[in-house]
Amino acid sequence: MYKYDEYDQQMVDTRVAEFRDQVRRRLSGELTEEQFRPLRLQNGLYLQLHAYMLRVAVPYGTLNSAQMTLLGDIADKYDRGYGHFTTRQNIQYNWIKLEDTPDILADLAKVEMHAIQTSGNCIRNISSDQYAGAAADELIDPRPYAELLRQWSSFHPEFLVLPRKFKIAVIASETDRAAMRLHDIGIKMVKNDAGEIGAQFYAGGGMGRTPMISPMIREFVPLDHLITYSEACLRVYNRYGRRDNKYKARIKILVHELGKDEYVRQVEEEFQHLLTMGIEPPLAELERIKPYFADPAFETGLSEDLDLSDPDFRLWVERNTHAHKQPGYAIANISLKPVGGIPGDASADQIRLMAQLAKDYSFDELRVTHAQNIVLPHVKKADLYTLWKALDEAGLGTANLDTVGDMIACPGLDYCSLANARSIPVAQKISERFGSSEKQAEIGELKLKISGCINACGHHHAGHIGILGVDRKGVENYQLLLGGCEGADTSLGKITGPGFDEDGIVDAVERATEVYLSNKQDGERFLDTYRRIGMDPFKEAIYG
Amino acid sequence: MVEVQFRFRDDEAVNDSAVTVDAFAEQTNATAVRIEPGDDARALLPFLDQLALVEVNFPAWTDGRGYSSARVLREAGFTGEIRAVGDVVIDMLSHLRRCGFDAFAPDKPLNPADAQSAFERWDNVYQAAADGRQPIWALRHQN
Hints:
Organism (chain A): Novosphingobium beihaiensis
Strand order of the largest sheet of chain B: 1-6-5-4-3-2
Distance between the termini of chain A: 54 Å
Structural class of chain A: alpha+beta
Low-confidence stretches of chain B: none
Helix content of chain A: 25-40%
Protein name (chain A): Nitrite/sulfite reductase
Mean pLDDT of chain A: 95
Radius of gyration of chain A: 23 Å
Low-confidence stretches of chain A: none
Strand content of chain B: 15-25%
Oligomer: heterodimer
CATH class of chain B: Alpha Beta
Keywords (chain A): 4Fe-4S, Heme, Iron, Iron-sulfur, Metal-binding, Oxidoreductase
Order of helices and strands of chain B: EEHEEHEHEHH
Helix content of chain B: 25-40%
Number of domains of chain B: 1
Largest sheet of chain B: 6 strands, mixed
Number of helices of chain B: 5
Number of strands of chain B: 6
CATH architecture of the largest domain in chain A: 2-Layer Sandwich
Pfam families (chain A): NIR_SIR (PF01077), NIR_SIR_ferr (PF03460)
Strand content of chain A: 15-25%
Structural class of chain B: alpha/beta
Strand order of the largest sheet of chain A: 1-2-5-4-13
Number of domains of chain A: 4
Mean pLDDT of chain B: 94
Protein name (chain B): DUF934 domain-containing protein
Number of helices of chain A: 17
CATH superfamily of the largest domain in chain A: Sulfite Reductase Hemoprotein, domain 1
CATH architecture of chain B: 3-Layer(aba) Sandwich
Number of strands of chain A: 20
């Protein structure tokens, strides 16, 4: 994975010094909270309901074991012994003291980490495919391009005060595992007819209160124009994105209101102009970055055989591992969704254990997924059983990847100052209702996503089953959505009808799964059945 | 007129009072213009030769359109003064400099020591912008 050189290190160290200075000015009263707010936000520091929350960036979701170990240590030293992995492949800590934050950032800088632009109206952490560099189906590893964009977007002087936050995802396979088309800019690395690699750009996707699937805005951007084209996209947005209403300030609204064609025309004009400005790094810079993402030293001639005589292990292998491009290896998913647990939470000890296991079994590498799980990308099949045993003992062996128990949930009203309803208790109740791995295995792939308010941090629009918590005259109320999907066939869920209370929504989800089980045809997932039979049978069962 | 607190130019101070972009359209002998966040800086491009000063107003520092305005002017070759006025705060200074601002007239005067360290904050930068600094990628690949 990428290693900082002296320049990268200096940038991060400088930021720590700058933030230390900003905190000093805040603590001395020189800055009011109002003045401090936008500054701390650019450093991932939020003021939540009960305490400060610090969000640490995990660029394109890739970590080494030293970094992961430190994340565990921070949870112990500065928080309450746990951390929360997020849908942006980051980690956040919910019980942070303001005066500790400069020291936390200094600790992070020592292992080449930071919290730069993990919030605020700026370009956020670049996300990517959690299986990058390991999946059998990818064209190339998307991460070198994500790293190039990371550097370009860090402290970009023109784009630190955008109309609203700006999220970019980079992928390089047909199977979109990063919800690319639900980002402000989605980039898919592609090969053109001449066999050259380039970037396909999508713009104007997003969730929130006005969910939109992004249209393609350019089929092919050559690699030596990648930064220049990105800059053009951002400049048009910075100049013309709406600033009169924060709910209409994302780029999706600009693209929608201008129309895709007009947005594209303006971007092309800006792009042609910027091409004359010499702002593009040389291709040599990409070539410098690429070797950091070269394959680890895979062994060859390994056996594909796996002893699956232990039924629990078998279930985990079938559910939680994914095909690796290298024979004899597998991609192992660690579910952070134990039955009744808080989705995405891990204790300090669990975080350090995962770090150690990555060191022992996965070439020192881990990934954070947007579904709030952890991946060990390069595990020898022969090591899977030992790995699973160690995970299982630590409560990390749940075999439920992409099933109903593996839900995404935002922090909700338990932590978040924007939320209207709690998400975590609903997630826990659903998880308990479906309980056993066997039951979840019978239902198979079913992506459930829960948001505690209309801002949709829990991706409810993109869930096969989505749940949206709202406030109805002071009472928490939960709406049910069906048919959303975030992959290559992205679709947005539709609301079934009137909402439910906390127990009612759990019943409704169960009834929806029953409709699926009694209607499914060979090999259909929940989503396939829904798409074939439509909303009505579900409505009937739920409200009938 | 609010006082210019920081200036990074050797030429004589410009004291002409700035007219609005709309007024400028009617009175094209003015030598100083003020751009509001919603104004299109490109409307000034035909007149850059006669302008000594462009003020870019930040009614609130959280509106970042002025950063693009300054870069657009510099990219078009404008060499006159670009002055940030309005709600200009310490933490904007280094980025404004990078976008081509070379004078600062904050509504509320800034602590000079804090401003000084803000201007000098970044020894290196990741991007090419309007200040002519060599980005890190250029430093990495210079022969």
